[in-house]
Amino acid sequence: MYLDACEDDSTSTGASFKTKDAIFVGKKESTRFRGLWKILSKYADISSLNGVPFIMQSRHCLVKVAWSLLLVGAVGASIFHLYYLFSNYFEYQKYSQVQLKFDSLKFPAVTICNVNMMRISQKRFASEEIQSLFQTEIKWNSSNKSLNNTTDSDLNKKAYELDNEEIQHIADDDDLVPDMSNPCLLEWVKDKERELCQHCSYCWDQGQLSNSSLYEIDDYFQYLFNKQSMDIRQQIGHQKEGLIRMCSFAGRMCGYELFQQVVSPQYGNCYTLHHENFTSRKSGIAGGLELILSLETDEYTPAITSDVGARVIIHEPGTAPFLDDNDIAVSPGMHTFIALKKVEIIRIGEPFSSCISESHTVLDYKYTKPVSQ
Question: Which residues cross the membrane (predicted)?
Fold first, then answer.
């Protein structure tokens, strides 16, 4: 009996120890919670964030809830506003700034072309296809002196008879302008040919000329002309010493030697004037360029060239002259005045746009929008 009593006492004593341990752990956790709450209370007292001190100091639960909702709403609005600001910033929005200045300017490049591609006196140096085309045209002109009473259909039947194999698609001809090895220039010629097919009632790959106007002869002659070598095209075209009779800039004489030759697929020999020392300091004829041109109309090819005059294009120095886009027609026997104002557009690059500043060396010209197209 004594032993049993001892065992009971030991058991009850261990249970009391376990209860004390649980009470000690509970007190420790309560102390930690009170310490954390005390830290938060001190932070709320010294915090400059609006609403936090009122949440901790308010005695009523509704007031605490109200201030808590206001605080959460304010934080949410701040986050939304920051998101809006950052999204606008990373969109890299652009704006335009326009300035009007009156100052001396570097004179632009001026390119002139005679609308007649080949001098009739030099046709003996042309290809056999061109010479046969001229012989056919001469026979047609001699047998048809009156054109008013003849339809286009009859004119085309009497003008020439060409085999279907003689006219091929320009883009598929490997011998087209063999000296134009530059792929960009060759693609540009192909695009012009495709534009020609869209606006005419025939296309080269049809193998024949349909019934249309006499302008089709000019198109076919242009095709044959561009098949020749660069040297032949330069030789049979109009020369600058014959085309440019007088040149003066700001009252000072400038010779035709300053003009550089450019061969155009549309007009043959063209000549570009650009000099580093040419600077426009005042407007008007006295401060600009004055030219007297000799069109040499006696050298025009009959029944081929349907117009008389010259084409003038004014472009930025170092850029390619695209005559079909911005050229100006100059008529013979008349004064032609051209006034310009310079518009310079400077675009910002990455990350605001896809513009690049690296120079392109594919062509010998500066990079411009028509070149890229």
Answer: 65-86
Residue 103 has pLDDT above 60, yes or no: yes
Calculate the average pLDDT of the chain.
Answer: 71
Tokens of 63: 């007031």
Query: Which of 110, 163, 72 is closest to 326 using CA atoms?
Result: 110
- Could you tell me the pTM of the whole model? 0.54
Count of domains for the chain: 3
112 shares a domain with 168? no
pLDDT at 92: 78
- Which residues are bridge partners to 105 per DSSP? 280
- The DSSP 8-state label assigned to residue 256 in this structure reads G
CA-wise closest residue to 270 among 108, 116, 122 = 116
* d(C-alpha 119, C-alpha 137), whole Å: 16
State pLDDT tens for residues 233-258: 999 999 999 999 999 998 888 888 99
Of the listed ranges 16-20, 286-290, 320-324, the one predicted with least confidence: 16-20
Range of 313's domain? 102-116+243-373
Q: Distance between CA 255 and CA 130 in Å, rounded?
A: 33
Residue 81 has pLDDT above 90, yes or no: yes
CA distances from 265 to 117, 180, 222, 306 (A): 9, 11, 7, 16
Distances (CA, A) of 107 to 253, 279, 280: 15, 5, 6
Q: Output phi, psi for 252, to 5 deg.
A: -110, 140
Residues 255 and 368 in one domain: yes
- Asked if 309 contacts 330 with a C-beta cutoff of 8 angstroms, the reply is yes
